[in-house]
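Tutorial sheet, problem 5. The two components below are modelled jointly, 637 residues in total.
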Amino acid sequence: MNALESSRIAVVALRANPGRSALTMLGVIIGVAAVILLVSIGEGARAYIEKELTGIGTNLLAIQPGKTSTAGGFHPPAAGSVHKLTYEDAKAIKRRAYAVSDAVPVVLGSGKVKFENLSRDTIIIGTAPEFPRVRNLFVEIGDFVTQADVDTKSKVVVLGRTVYRELFGDRPALGARVTIADAKFRVVGIMQAKGMTLGFDIDDIVFIPATAAMELYDTDALHEILAAAGRAEETDLAIRQIKEVLMKRHAGKEDFTIITQRAMMSTMDTILTILTGVLGGIAGISLVVGGIGIMNIMLVSVKERTREIGIRKAVGARRIDILQQFLFEAVILSLIGGIIGIVVGGGIAYSIPLFYSAIPTRVSLWSVTLAFFFSVAVGVFFGVEPARRAARLDPIEALRYE
Amino acid sequence: MPTLIEMEGVSKVYRTGQVDVAALAGITLSVETGEYMAIMGASGSGKSTLMNVIGFLDRPTDGVYRFAGREVENLSDDDLAAIRGRRIGFVFQTFQLLPRATALENVELPLVYQSVSRAERRAHAMDILTQVGLADRMFHTPMELSGGQQQRVAIARALVTRPLLLLADEPTGNLDSRSGAEIMALIDRLHAEGLTILVVTHDAAVAGHARRRIVLRDGQIVEDTRERVGESVNR
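Model answer (structure tokens):
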């Protein structure tokens, strides 16, 4: 008997009990939909974070004081605080490491920015003119901090969008004087809105010259130096050159850490791959439960149809014919359940971002393919045993069965 | 006439718990093509077991069984199924029709397992149903048919593969006397057309239709009218 004949018989049998077939299928539908949905959330998160990190700049390097390793491992707490990074270090890197196109000092602080009777607590970044280029930021009105501002410790400030809006509303701000920690700063520019990146509001920041920030906080230490390799494929060379330059300046000691964008991305990627796997695995359990439902109903069905099996055997059905008939029933259940589950799961995954834009989802082809074949495999796996029982029945006893 | 069924010392032993029960104890039997034979005996005499063995639903424990000149032993379940499908037609007391299938689908069933194309088996099944007088009942399910009509469907199903042997187990057991008579008339007609027929029954009236009668008791043939009328027992 060919496969077409078997599937025809199986479909007839399934349609004889539509309610039961639908409920059995529902188990598989829920399982497959859950796999598609949860994997799409994991994949969506991964795509979102990759996009955000790429938006920051892929050939970015951050040099931070103290030796730690992004690759993990144990560090005694005292091993860190050895040597500060200074503005001179940043200048030296820029001058001598030719694979590095930019080396931007970053002094990080926070404080109140006041204008007239309004004030806002915000993040204050002391830096140099290259900062916007390295971080893919743009000035909308006026100018960024210039090299001359840095050299002369000018008290100028560039406002992030949020800070500007809070302090000035829609009024012009260029040339206005704001107070930062008792010092007056002249507004020279307003940044273009950038929005949230990884939950952090890039617009809620003000920029001042690095030298002015060091004076403001009475320090000569930089929080970090942001560097960019001239070309992405020269990142490794840039790292070597930065190490060379800094170690020469720091008495031969590697008392700083260079974090690459790529290392951050691969760490994130690993975390999210595990997350996606865990989510998919949890959903997979429900699919297995759906499979057990199929097995359960098939065992009942074989029992109920013992006489039918006897009749079929009496008129010449071989074991394989009976096996095929019942296996096809199980597989058709799981196959149709799988297809409906993909449509339902995919549909929910697509519509989630329409209602909750905070949850990005992405239905990937591999998860659909995997869920589909997994559901068929579930049907085969849980359908084989009931089908084998049916095929093994003794025709004489089966015919006598009431 | 060539010999269709030949049994020598065939026995069938069931093991129930620790006691062995011999349902057949050394059956020696020969049936020629075209014979019409009744197998009689009280319940538990082994007549059903004999029918099952002859019809390849069951295997003998011991002895030699030749069917259509071929010695049949060490057959797998699938071999048995293939012989049943092609050579034997069964008619049961309880009809044994698929309840949800139409008369036509029931008659087609044996051909499904012989990979006959849908169109061909449909045409053939319709032809046979017409022959048994059910041309206007083809698309009815067994529930919509009378007992006599159901048994006609079952006979049509048995005939659809053009078998060498028709095995009928109490074919009139569940029928009123009028339907029973009609069914026996149909079986008589099939015999007249040349089909070999074995009828298992405890009803003397049914057995009376047959030209030969064997009686079983405790798994042995205690009476065979063929020997009494002196026909040859040659192979």
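Marking note: Chain A touches chain B through 23 residues (CB under 8 Å). Full credit if you identified this.
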